[in-house]
């Protein structure tokens, strides 16, 4: 724990030095980025996107979530988006090394049942995506990186109704 506190302190100091030594243009960009982060966070809280799912256990997302761990006790899923739907894979049990080798398909969701979407349509860099089911219920999916390959894939898809 003391190491974690030290690393946090060093990180905060580095950020303070960056801000203090930044040029006027860099400071303006940092202020704009901070404001965009605040707007994004406000939207997330306002729309309830800070939750794992929409909260309706009777909806498709709630029922899917209840079955989630019956497929695998591992908390992470590999999500693949295709034109035909969404595929989720996971190792059959909790593993720390070699989980990619042990991946098995645990769910296939046809495009008629669920779609993957970026709730911000690319306006903000986030790790968040939504798995939206046909009844309007949703499950939040967090990617390991900002603007993941899934985000890029979704941005290249035509908007619904176009």
UniProtKB/TrEMBL annotation:
This is Uncharacterized protein. It comes from Streptomyces tibetensis. The lineage of its organism: Bacteria, Bacillati, Actinomycetota, Actinomycetes, Kitasatosporales.
């Amino acid at each position: 724990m003391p190491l974690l506190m030290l690393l946090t302190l060093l990180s905060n100091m580095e950020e303070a030095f960056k801000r203090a030594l930044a040029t006027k243009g860099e400071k303006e960009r940092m202020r704009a980025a901070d404001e965009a982060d605040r707007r994004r966070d406000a939207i997330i809280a306002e729309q309830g996107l800070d939750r794992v799912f929409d909260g309706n256990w009777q909806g498709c997302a709630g029922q899917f979530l209840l079955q989630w761990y019956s497929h695998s006790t591992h908390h992470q899923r590999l999500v693949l988006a295709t034109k035909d739907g969404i595929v989720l894979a996971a190792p059959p049990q909790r593993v720390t090394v070699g989980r990619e080798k042990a991946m098995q398909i645990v769910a296939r969701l046809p495009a008629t049942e669920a779609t993957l979407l970026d709730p911000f349509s690319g306006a903000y860099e986030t790790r968040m995506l939504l798995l939206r089911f046909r009844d309007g219920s949703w499950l939040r999916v967090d990617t390991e990186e900002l603007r993941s390959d899934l985000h890029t894939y979704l941005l290249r898809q035509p908007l619904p109704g176009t």
